[in-house]
Design a protein that fits this description.
- Pfam families: ACAS_N, AMP-binding, AMP-binding_C.
- It catalyses: (E)-4-coumarate + ATP + CoA = (E)-4-coumaroyl-CoA + AMP + diphosphate.
- It comes from Zingiber officinale (Ginger).
- The protein is α/β, with parallel strands linked by helices and 707 residues long.
- The protein is built from 22 helices and 32 strands.
- A 7-stranded mixed β-sheet has the order 7-6-19-18-20-21-22, sandwiched between helices.
- Helix 12 crosses helix 13.
- The longest helix has 17 residues.
- The N and C termini lie far apart (56 Å).
Length: 707
Amino acid sequence: MTTGEAVATPKRSLASSDRLRHVDSMAQLPYGAGRISHLNAVILGESLESEENDLVFPSHEFSSQALVSSPEQYRKMYERSIEDPAGFWSEIASQFYWKEKWDLEVYSENIDVRKGSIKFEWFKGASTNISYNALDRNIEAGNGGKVAIYWEGNEPDDDGQLTYLELLERVCQLANYLKHVGVRKGDAVIIYLPMLMELPIAMLACARIGAVHSVVFAGFSSESLSQRIIDCKPKLVITCNAVKRGSKAIHLKDIVDSALRESAKNGVTVDLCLTVENKSAMKRGDTKWKQGRDIWWQDVVPHFPTKCDVEWVDAEDPLFLLYTSGSTGKPKGVLHTTGGYMVYTATTFKYAFDYKPSDIYWCTADCGWITGHSYITYGPLLNGATVVVFEGAPNYPDCGRCWDIVDKYKVTIFYTAPTLVRSLMREGDEYVTRHDRKSIRVLASVGEPINPSAWRWFYNVVGNSRCPISDTWWQTETGGLMITPLPGAWPQKPGSATFPFFGVQPVIVDEKGNEIEGECSGYLCIKKSWPGAFRTLYGDHERYQTTYFKPFAGYYFTGDGCSRDKDGYFWLTGRVDDVINVSGHRIGTVEVESALVSHPQCAEAAVVGIEHEIKGQGIYAFVTLVEGVPFSEEIRKSLILSVRNQIGAFAAPDKIHWAPALPKTRSGKIMRRILRKIASRQLDELGDTSTLADPSVVDQLIALADF
């Protein structure tokens, strides 16, 4: 039945027609998607009440206005993106401004380590500037007076806004200041700021002059910050004196001071610290200051001109460094370049959220993470969107703050993390339902797989059973969304990321690297490059190849497990390496173990991830103390404090499990598989322990468990 025929039918028939329309065309989707043999389903506008309702179909009203309105339209676009990637992406890229066009070869790639060094290039030879495309291009199109950023402070009555023209002027002032103090194309700038408007301003100012920004989440400790300073050797650090998150004040400048002292001990001296005075959190006179190095932003930046010439850069010139946790303990400096990232983030934003020029978009993430780069600063602004930037905590002054903000700014697209969804879900429906929320038309999640029960609550309660959910899967390394629903295009399943975005070829492989077809589970890999892919790990291309391309030669290995159901839907099952995903923050187990072992009374530690009702994954630490030191509550608190100080509060272990010894093989390797089973209370699934040097250790750990 065609869409046109469904329009004129009564409401009850409309739902049935919509279901059949999508089911019939689902047979043409890629990756084994076939006819859906059951109709346990609802349509947008109907409540998803039971676990048996496992499909949510877009309504005709939504689909008819969607950018991608049917599986058939998606299939045609997707097939072209795979069969003719050069034509598909160059056509999209032509919508942006390029000072010079790319070479005849739109892209080149080697994704197979057996054929030489891994290398991706997109739009090589072209010159552009992402700041120009995000700001000047929109202003030239007549949108200078449109609001670019609504800023919401920690306190409900603290807010502000910038139009595209005002944002450009602020960006140019900072860019001119940076040039004045000697920052040049290719120089690194560390940005350690909370979610003030100065954060996206600083990112865009760096990009405007060709400098490489490295935003560090303002929850990292001084030690973590110093590691990043030592690695990228920035020309300056941009920070603020303090920030209030909820009722708690965090003295960021003190953390930066400590980090700069530590980096100086390691031979890396930073001569300039540009500091924003955040009056709502700390008075200027209370801020510790180093004359000659520290400069107040408000004293210098506003005095510079509001126009700044653009530094045109090659499409493959670096745009930013973003450090992510690795299984070796040393943070990895993920390097993204300009042209491909620009095209990919703008395109994924447009289609995954079904963006319309009238939308008010809010992503609750922080620019210290990749989500804030791609879907607060660059992706939205490249599309000329209006973005909400929120400084505070989602539960301050109460758990209705998110919906206060939604109603205040009439937010239409709401993008958040499953952690926040679960947290708000636990507080009860009342905080949500007392607000209007009628402006919301698209919901979305990011950071980790969203469990079906949270998905249903998000859909039923937050979205009033009328908003599709874009449950997105992607990574810091991918630059943008990789597997995601397109609202209006096909039915959704609670908890599934559904199908790949344009140009993305996901495969599921077994332990030997063989591709598995149809319904299956295994390791998620990507074959072929895509424009938003990271190009290397800063200063360590060998680690880049070893970590991502050697595990399964010929593929990019995501490090995630994945299953595909009989209908072809992809379901992410979490990390398969030694990285724990806590509230969307990727934390290396080795980092946490190193912080624990640095404690003078800790002899050894092993960290594993466990399921956590709110955070998705929690940190469970097995700790062996120095001989003769008894376990105590005081030491437990001291160990947790050690992790908080060295990494950050978000990495603090949820559970310390005292361990007289750890289960090891005869070669000394810790059997983490056994530790995961103990931590998860799966004691009947311990498996063979005969290969352990001392099998009795397992019984000791179980006896000491505080279940």
